[in-house]
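From the methods appendix. Each design record in this collection lists the tokenized structure first, followed by the designed amino acid sequence. Records were kept in a plain field format so they could be parsed without special tools. The example shown here is representative of the layout used throughout.

RECORD:
FOLD TOKENS (116 positions):
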């Protein structure tokens, strides 16, 4: 999902700083989770109206930074594990389409094992 040129810039950035030594799959996964939690903080304790207002304010940059952090760690993890993110997302969409057929789940929020 990250364009190849941008991914290469990320890899070069990391290599120039000799950070590969810290970026094993376990620690990248931990960092991804931490950044995703920081993303959640942006929404915590806010109403839909407050979120909408923040999206129109200078605080939007904070949200974008957290989204970028999540994308960076996910990109590093996929790169290092040899995972083609586009390919696995496409495969997962096929599985989800089978698990959640439109005629059974449209406009419903229950889990796949709860609908009849």
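DESIGN:
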């Amino acid at each position: 999902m990250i364009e190849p040129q941008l991914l290469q810039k990320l890899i070069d950035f990391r290599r120039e700083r000799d950070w590969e030594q810290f970026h094993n799959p376990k620690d990248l996964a931990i960092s991804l989770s931490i950044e995703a939690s920081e993303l959640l903080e942006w929404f915590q304790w806010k109403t839909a109206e407050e979120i909408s207002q923040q999206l129109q304010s200078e605080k939007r940059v904070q949200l974008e930074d957290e989204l970028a952090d999540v994308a960076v760690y996910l990109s590093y993890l996929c790169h290092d594990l040899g995972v083609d993110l586009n390919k696995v997302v496409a495969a997962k969409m096929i599985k989800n389409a089978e698990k959640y057929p439109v005629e059974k789940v449209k406009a419903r929020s229950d889990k796949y094992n709860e609908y009849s």
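APPENDIX NOTE: The helical segments are 4-16, 25-43, 48-55, 60-81, 85-99, 102-105.
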